[in-house]
Design goal:
The structure holds 2 protein chains of 2 kinds. By secondary structure, chain A is α+β, with helices and mostly antiparallel strands. Chain A contains 12 helices and 8 strands. Chain B is an alpha/beta fold. Chain B has a 6-stranded mixed beta sheet with strand order 6-7-8-3-9-10, sandwiched between helices. In chain B, a hairpin with a 2-residue loop joins strand 9 (211-216) and strand 10. The longest helix of chain B is centred in the last third of the chain and has 16 residues, at 175-190. The chains are: A alpha+beta, B alpha/beta.
Chain lengths: 384, 248
């Protein structure tokens, strides 16, 4: 084979291009790395991750794990990471619920309802989320001072330092309540199986959803009341200058959560709406002709088919919400970016801190999309 | 025709889509066990007419009484009518996420509250009748058009309707599949089912229909027995239509 035929051969030509591309990329990366190393040396900066062991010497007000100003940078970043995960999970849950409800309601035949939802969606998705975060934060900060806290049933207090909720202290006997709770979960599994069996025999349909909800709330509550109330609720009370007891949720967390979940929910509602509209009207007609009620048609026919269209863009919205949570830095919610910035400023290890950010968000996003892809695969249609 | 034996009674029916007058002064009475074929050019309102009978379309004027239940805004009556009326669509409208058996049992289980095993047995019985019991575990996407339409017929029959509506059941099918669907419909006609069929299959019409209705521009132009309709059509519009569809 001569050189000319090598060049006109489809496969060898493809191979040559690929090799050239790989070499090109490798050279580019090598250049960036060597350039960075020389620059860091010139500036007298040490690279590496050993700074993570140094003392942080700053405080963090919202922490899920033990942390004080004598803890290390590494621990501070973990606290920030957990705070990001908290807002991501809370936000995704709320955005999903609001988004699905809004999406379905916007298709409602009731003019008032569908108009109201349209206004919500168009307003919220067309204002930058950063402004919305600040908007909610300002509103929360303009609540009354601590001394004049607004109260809900004298157990929840709203003021400009956040929301004070009752906290729970679990004493020894509380194990029983948890045992009952798990017992209910196991029982529900058997009720589910029993109701399937009963349907197969008698055709009666058991209202499983309501029963489950009732039992999950009622039985542990009953145990709690019958035993000598082993969970000690620390209900906040008004002190002279401050509220005593309870558990404080910072206005930053609440503002961030409200803004991210309503903002993302507006997008999710449009995704849900387009998913529902993607199911042909013939499906609804066939279900009506068979005598299915609209709510049952939605549950059994429309949503299962709409989900195939909804899941992929829904995944993107979950990832957006997670990444948008880094806007927390604007109002001082101590997420990984906010804390990482402080670490960066104090230690000067910019590249390392940024690389931690990137790896953190990448991992979080990949886990989310892996889960969503698995779910999407499960509900795929069998075509042939 | 005895007035009391009418299962469907339509009087002075008028319907508009916006400004478009789709159905004009329709009067029609269908008695138990009667088989009626409705034909006419596209846009003549024939599909709309049968879709009004189970309230997939809402009418604006006139009365529709199905098996003693008048169709109004009363949801109870609509439910009652839909219990008695089965429908087969041009585009099959099987539920693609459920297999053939689940397609047939879904309404039995959730609407009729029938035990699952009983529902499955009943569904299998009807799948036998439409001659595809072996496809029970497959999904609609895995079947041919003719097979899908037969499943759709079985799905409707499972609900034991008194009346079956067919909205161009063979128009979306390849020629060789049309026959397998028509065969099932002929079998059904022989069991004494009341049937309203919108179709252009004139062979089927002359074989099973008691009455043929020809519609144009929202009006019932002609209603007649098959022999009279084909051999001695009254209106010129019918003659023109017949010459067009029977010319090749």
């Amino acid at each position: 084979m001569n050189t000319k035929s090598l060049w006109t051969n489809e496969r060898t030509r493809g191979l040559i291009f690929q090799v050239l591309l790989v070499v090109g990329i490798a050279v580019f990366i090598a250049f960036i790395i060597s350039n960075t190393i020389t620059n860091l040396e010139k500036a007298g900066l040490a690279s590496g991750y050993s700074f993570l062991g140094d003392t942080a010497s700053f405080d963090i007000n919202q922490r899920l794990i033990e942390y004080s100003s004598t803890s290390t940078y590494g621990r501070a970043i973990i606290v920030g990471g957990l705070n990001t995960i908290v807002i991501a999970i809370l936000g995704i849950l709320a955005a999903t619920v609001i988004g699905f409800i809004a999406g379905i309601l916007r298709l409602s035949k009731n003019y008032l309802i569908s108009r109201l939802v349209t206004i919500y969606v168009e307003f919220v998705r067309n204002v930058p989320v950063l402004l919305q975060i600040i908007f909610w934060w300002v509103i929360l900060l303009s609540l009354p001072k601590v001394r004049n806290s607004l109260s809900i049933g004298d157990s929840i207090f709203l003021n400009n330092r956040g929301i004070r909720l009752p906290s729970a202290n679990f004493s020894e006997g509380s194990v029983l309540v948890f045992l009952v709770f798990f017992g209910v979960l196991i029982t529900l599994y058997f009720i589910k199986r029993w109701s399937h069996k009963r349907q197969e025999k008698t055709g009666k349909i058991f209202p499983f959803g309501f029963t489950a909800l009732g039992l999950i709330i009622f039985l542990p509550a009953l145990t709690f009341l019958l035993t000598d109330q082993p969970i000690d609720f620390n209900v906040p009370t008004r002190g002279r200058f401050n509220l005593k007891g309870g558990f404080n949720v910072t206005p930053e967390l609440v503002a961030l959560w409200l803004a991210l979940s309503t903002y993302t929910a507006a997008f999710i509602s449009e995704i849900v709406r387009s998913g529902i509209l993607s199911v042909s009207s013939g499906q609804r007609e066939a279900a009506s002709a068979l005598g299915l009620k609209p709510s049952l048609t939605m549950r059994k026919i429309i949503l299962p088919q709409a989900l195939r269209v909804i899941i992929p863009p829904l995944t993107s919205q979950y990832l957006n919400l997670t990444k948008n949570s880094s806007l927390a830095v604007a109002i001082g919610y101590q997420d990984i970016v906010s804390i990482g910035d402080t670490v960066l400023n104090q230690s000067g290890q910019a590249l390392e801190v940024i690389s931690i950010f990137m790896i953190f968000y990448l991992t979080l996003s990949l886990i989310t999309s892996a889960f969503m892809n698995w779910y999407n695969k499960r509900i795929e249609l069998v075509e042939r | 025709m005895n007035e009391n034996s009418a299962v469907i009674e339509i009087s002075d029916l008028n319907k508009w889509f916006g400004n478009f007058h789709v159905l004009r002064d329709i009067n029609l009475s269908v008695s138990q066990g009667e088989r009626i074929v409705i034909c006419g050019p596209s846009g003549s309102g024939k599909s709309t007419l049968i879709r009004c009978i189970n309230r997939l379309e809402e009418h604006q004027e006139g009365r529709i009484v199905v098996d003693g239940n008048e169709l109004t805004h009363d949801l109870k009556n609509i439910d009652a009518v839909r219990r008695e009326v089965g429908m087969v669509f041009q585009s099959f409208n099987l539920f693609p996420h459920l297999n053939v058996l689940e397609n047939c049992t879904l309404a039995l289980i959730w609407v009729r509250k029938m035990p699952k095993l009983e529902a499955e047995n009943l569904a299998m019985e009807y799948l036998h009748r439409v001659k595809i019991p072996e496809q029970a575990q497959k999904f609609p996407g895995q079947l041919s058009g003719g097979q899908q339409q037969r499943v759709a017929i079985a799905r409707s029959l499972c609900m034991r309707p008194k009346i079956m509506l067919f909205d161009e059941p063979t128009s979306a099918l390849d020629p060789e599949m049309i026959k397998e669907v028509l065969d099932v419909m002929v079998d059904l006609a022989e069991t004494g089912m009341t049937m309203l069929v919108v179709t252009h299959e004139m062979g089927f019409a002359s074989q099973v229909a008691d009455q043929i209705i020809f519609m144009d521009e929202g009006l019932i132009v002609e209603q007649n027995t098959p022999e009279e309709f084909f051999n001695n059509p009254k209106s010129d519009r019918t003659k023109l239509f017949l010459s067009q569809i029977l010319s090749h």
